[in-house]
Write a structure and sequence with these properties.
Radius of gyration: 21 Å
CATH superfamily of one domain: Dihydrodipicolinate Reductase, domain 2
Order of helices and strands: EHEHEHEHEHEHEHHEEEEEEHHEHHH
Distance between the termini: 42 Å
Bound molecules: nicotinamide-adenine-dinucleotide
Length: about 400
C-alpha cells in the first residue's frame, strides 16, 4: 500500500461541516464523484482507494486534492484519513465486497448503482447492513431530476394508471466492464429506468415478460437491446424498450416517458419538457440539486438526522429484482417471471453462497426475503428531502 500521508488526520463531522469521505474506485465515474465532492457543501474527499494505485494517485493529483490519502485498503485509508463514510464507485461485481469492508469498519456507505449483479448478492448486503446497523444507501442518481419530480407531480393527479411507457435509445462507447457483461443494457442502464418507475408511482412490480438480444452491429459482447412488460400491483403495465447501440433518433439518458390514466395523459422527454393533456392539472418544476449531487445530499442528511433515505439498501432490492426478473424471463424465452418467487429463490441462493457465519445467520433468521426487506435497517422515518421527494 502507498499513501501520500502517514499521520491520521482529524476532520470535523459536526452538522454544518462537510462529511469527510473516502471514494473507492477512481475510474470514469469515480473521477466524476471526486470532482463533485471537491466543491460540495455536504462532504469532502479525504481519501481515494483503487486496486490500481497509480490511477488513484493520478486522480488525487489531477483534481488537486492536497493531502488526500491514497491506498488499496478501504479500512486503512479511511482510518488514516479520518473519514466518516465511504462512496463506493467500483465496478458492480466489487460492490458487495467493498460495502462489507466499509460497514464492518463502522463506515456508512453510499454505493453506486447497480447495488449488485444479482438479487442474491443484494440480499447478502441487506444482511450485512442489518448486522452492523450501518447505513447502506444506493445512489440511484437519476431519481433526482427536477423535471422528473414535475412529471411525477402531474402523474399523481391523473388518477388510476393504465400504463407507463419508457423508451431508451442510446449509443455509448465506454470500453470496460460494460462491454463484457452478458446484459449491459438491463444490468447497467435499465436499473436506472426501472428505479425511476418506482419513484414515479407507488405501484409495486409483480411480474415481467422480457426479450433481450444483441443487434448484429453491436460493440457489446452481451445483449444491448431489450423489450420488457411489467405487471404492476394495481393492474397497470410498465412497458419498456431500450437499446445501447442505437445509431439514430436517440433519447435522453433518462429515457422518454409517457403515461395514460383515467383523467388524461402526461409525457416527459427525459430532459426538460413535461406535457400534460388533462383538465385542470398543473405541476411545479422544483429548482434543486440533481443527479449525484442530490444523492449525496440525501445520504449526508439521512446520516445526520438518522432518517431513512429513499434508496436505503432494502428499498433498492425491488428495483434490482425488476432487472433480474427481466433477465430471467429473457433467458427462458419470454416466460412470465413472478417477482415474489424470484425474491424467495434469491434468498435461498444467498444463504447457499454466503461464507460468513454471522451474515448467513441473519439471512436464515428471516422468515422470507419479503420479511428481510420489509423494515429499513437504518433510520426511524423517511427523510424530508428537498431534491425529489421520498417515495
Ligand atoms: N449514476 C450514473 O449515472 C453512473 C454513470 C457511470 C457509471 N456508474 C456506475 O459507477 C460504477 C463505476 O463505473 P465506472 O464507469 O467508473 O467504471 P470503471 O471501470 O471506469 O472504474 C471502476 C474502478 O473501480 C476499481 N475497482 C474495481 N474493484 C475494486 C475494488 N475491489 N477495490 C477498489 N477499487 C476497485 C477499478 O480498478 C476501476 O478503477 C459502476 O457501478 C457504474 O454502473 C454510474
Amino acid at each position: 500500500m502507498t499513501s501520500t500521508m502517514t499521520e491520521k488526520i482529524d476532520h470535523p463531522t459536526a452538522p454544518g461541516d462537510r462529511l469527510p469521505v473516502v471514494v473507492v474506485g477512481a475510474g470514469a465515474m469515480g473521477t466524476a464523484w471526486i470532482r463533485m465532492l471537491a466543491t460540495s457543501p455536504h462532504a469532502v474527499p479525504v481519501g481515494v482507494v483503487d486496486l490500481d494505485l497509480d490511477l488513484a494517485a493520478s486522480a488525487v493529483a489531477t483534481l488537486g486534492l492536497d493531502g488526500a490519502v491514497v491506498g488499496d485498503s478501504v479500512a486503512e485509508v479511511a482510518e488514516r484519513a479520518g473519514a466518516a463514510a465511504v462512496v463506493n464507485v467500483t465496478v458492480p461485481q466489487a460492490h458487495r465486497i467493498v460495502n462489507e469492508q466499509a460497514l464492518r469498519a463502522g463506515l456508512p456507505v453510499l454505493c453506486e448503482k447497480p447495488l449488485a449483479p444479482t438479487v442474491a448478492e443484494a440480499l447478502r448486503q441487506v444482511a450485512i447492513a442489518d448486522l452492523t446497523g450501518g447505513l447502506l444507501m444506493v445512489s440511484q442518481s437519476r431519481r433526482y431530476f427536477n423535471h422528473l419530480a414535475a412529471f411525477r407531480d402531474a402523474v399523481e393527479q391523473l388518477g388510476p394508471l393504465a400504463a407507463v411507457h419508457a423508451q431508451f435509445f442510446h449509443a455509448d462507447h465506454e470500453p470496460g466492464f460494460r462491454e463484457q457483461m452478458a446484459h449491459p443494457l438491463l444490468v447497467d442502464m435499465s436499473i436506472h429506468h426501472f428505479d425511476m418507475l418506482r419513484y414515479l408511482t407507488d405501484d409495486v412490480p409483480v411480474a415481467v415478460r422480457c426479450s433481450s438480444w444483441n443487434p448484429p452491429w453491436s460493440w457489446f459482447a452481451g445483449d444491448a437491446a431489450a423489450t420488457a412488460e411489467f405487471e404492476l400491483d394495481s393492474g397497470a403495465r410498465f412497458v419498456y424498450s431500450g437499446s445501447r447501440c442505437t445509431p439514430g433518433l436517440q433519447t435522453s439518458w433518462n429515457a422518454d416517458w409517457r403515461v395514460y390514466a383515467e383523467r388524461g395523459a402526461a409525457s416527459w422527454d427525459g430532459d426538460d419538457v413535461v406535457r400534460v393533456d388533462a383538465e385542470g392539472i398543473g405541476f411545479d418544476v422544483p429548482a434543486r440539486p440533481e443527479g449525484i449531487e442530490a444523492s449525496l445530499e440525501e445520504f449526508v442528511t439521512s446520516l445526520r438526522a438518522g432518517t431513512t433515505p429513499q434508496n436505503e439498501v432494502r428499498a433498492n432490492v425491488l428495483s434490482l429484482a425488476m432487472v433480474e426478473g427481466a433477465i430471467r424471463s429473457s433467458e427462458r424465452g419470454g416466460e412470465r417471471v413472478v417477482v415474489a418467487e424470484l425474491l424467495e429463490e434469491s434468498l435461498a441462493q444467498a444463504i447457499t453462497d454466503e461464507q460468513r457465519d454471522d451474515v448467513a445467520g441473519v439471512l436464515r433468521s428471516w422468515t422470507s426475503a419479503a420479511d428481510g426487506i420489509a423494515t429499513p435497517a437504518w433510520g426511524s422515518a423517511p427523510a424530508a428531502i428537498a431534491s425529489g421527494g421520498a417515495q
